[in-house]
Amino acid sequence: MSGESASDGAGSDERRVRALLRHTWHAFFGRFGRLTEAQAKAAAPVARGESAVLCAPTASGKTEALVAPMMERCFGSGTASKEALRLVVVCPTRALCNDFLRRVRRPVEACGWTVDLKTGDSPSFSADAPPQLLVTTPESLDSLLSRQPAALKGIAGIFLDEIHLLDGSPRGDHLLALVWRLRSFRPELQVCCASATAADAERLADEWCGAGGKGARVVRVEGGRDRELQALFEKIIDPFEAARALERLMHDEPGSKTLVFANTRAEVEWLSATLAASLGATKVFAHHGSLAKAERLRAEKGFLRAGSGVCVATMTLELGIDIGDVDRVVLVNPPPNVASFTQRVGRSNRRGGAIRVVCLHSTAFDRMRFEHQIACARAGKLFVEPQVFRPTMLPQQAVSLIFQNPRGWVSAKALHKRLPPSAQKMWSRADCEDVLEVMRAEGYLHADSQGRFVADQPARKDWRHGRIHAHIGDDAEVEVVDETTGRTIGTAHWSGDDVSRADADGEGILLGGKGRKVTRVRDRRVFVEAGAMDEAPSFLSRMGPNYSFALARDLAAFADLGDDTLWLSRTGGHISRHDEWRLEHFFGTLWGQLLAAVLRSHGFRFKRVGAFHATVTRRPRRLPKNLGTPAAIESTVDDYLEKGYKKLAKRLQPGPWKRFVPPDLMRRWVRACMRPEEFAQVVAGFRICDA
């Protein structure tokens, strides 16, 4: 029987890729026994210069699969000049940038290239002597493009790591705009994206990588290591029980390493401080985005080197960062979506064998959500809900373009021309003109003698302080400084009243898993020293995630609640003047609000509307047989959107530039995101029944 064995096939792939990557093979792959499937599949198209989206499981070698052939292409074209920046790598967070640099520095330098970092933590960059490979964030790339655009004139490719973490978010829109601005003067720019959980790769390829009618390659690697997932469930009533459960786990396996994921910074700080008091400060680490770079690195390196211990983190440790082998993962209540669940549990036991996860849940419903996420992860169902490009990007990009232009102006035509194709379809040149006129009316810009827009004093001030490069909302965070050493520990949420008070001495906060006593507050800086905490601090949580309609309805099916029924049940044990009912709708965060608007037209009143349930305070005596025709439902929704678009806009995360966007553009954006025509068709098929 003739044919090629699996080992022969693998060897053939390796020989082919080795011949293709003459300059980069040894540095990137020489120390490994064999290529992964992702590396074998991506090498040829990427080395040829094709843009690509690589969808492959965690720990499949995606970084090497893309960076090595992208570098090889530069060698092959004779453009690997030591005087020019050739490749840019964009990571979602500064922590991931630091980790990416650590992982690629040795092979990149072994190829004779230079590599460096540019983030808010490490802002140094010289356009006169740039590295050939730069690792950065979207905000720092905007700064570079605005302030030192000449440094990017020779760029050959851009690698977007973990693109699913940004796609559809405010920072994702920001990065998408920057990619297409780069293409305005580098039309042949190669764009490669990597993701472990991208569910709609074709859309990503078209939106992020497609250019001039050219398609982008989608490289898929299915499955990965088929590891068993062993889940244990434990109910907790409050944070104290969560801490006790974690203490028991560590005492039962004293030599183990446990990674704990919590959904808010406040939970991370409180749990890590409580565990440090019982397990010892040297065995407990805290990690989240508000910690200063030095504090985050201290936690990462400490947990990496520790023989045993606990690290409590938010999403910052979901992926990428090397923290060594973790024996198990503990989840304190369900993460926001299936992709996040998959990333978190994937950190467990990477040496091989079963994934061990402990799910701490405070309610029976949260346990069901855990079980549903496990089922979705096993089936590969992520329920991604793409979002329309935000009009709030128009003013931010306008200002960035003004300072990129040596002549210091922007026009509606120039702004519109540099938008991504999807944004150009949504927002016209006239829309760009309207945004610029609002910025002029607000005194942020002014018009020159030729009617072009230039920066006024407020814009120039924001540029000097680096505030124009971000599309992240202001959560009133202040810098926290150690009184003794002067070292910045991180940032914390602090109200304006707290910041302005001079008598804040003695108040306490938690940061870095340690209790801190406030000594003074000066110029939006909170100075602290070590101190015991009498009670847990109060943190301002960020707005919760939006649960998609598809994810919510799949959870309803998982709970066997029917495909087309909204269930209504009385809460409490007896009838009174203050009756309330619980509506089981499972329409998700945004469509849940639209459903409530439709039900109000039928006589319902609500106290609260969530992603899965709503609290009803008034209902009609007779429930309607149906909720109306699609046309009638859409008309009701349009009336609601006309008046209530501002409330929904907050849920859609417009970002800090919304003050420059005319109301009409915001209404159109909210309507496009809410998809009322599709909603009306769906709702027309539902009925409402008493449980």
From TrEMBL:
The record, for SMART domains, names: DEXDc (SM00487), HELICc (SM00490)
Q: Which SUPFAM superfamilies match?
A: P-loop containing nucleoside triphosphate hydrolases
Q: Which PROSITE patterns does the record associate with it?
A: HELICASE_ATP_BIND_1, HELICASE_CTER
A GO molecular function term, named singly, is: DNA binding
Task: Write out the entry's keywords from A to Z.
Answer: ATP-binding, Helicase, Hydrolase, Nucleotide-binding
Cite the Helicase ATP-binding domain residue spans from the record: 43-205
Q: What is this protein called?
A: DEAD/DEAH box helicase
Native source organism of the sequence: Persicimonas caeni
Per the UniProt record, the lineage of the source organism begins with:
Bacteria, Deltaproteobacteria, Bradymonadales, Bradymonadaceae, Persicimonas
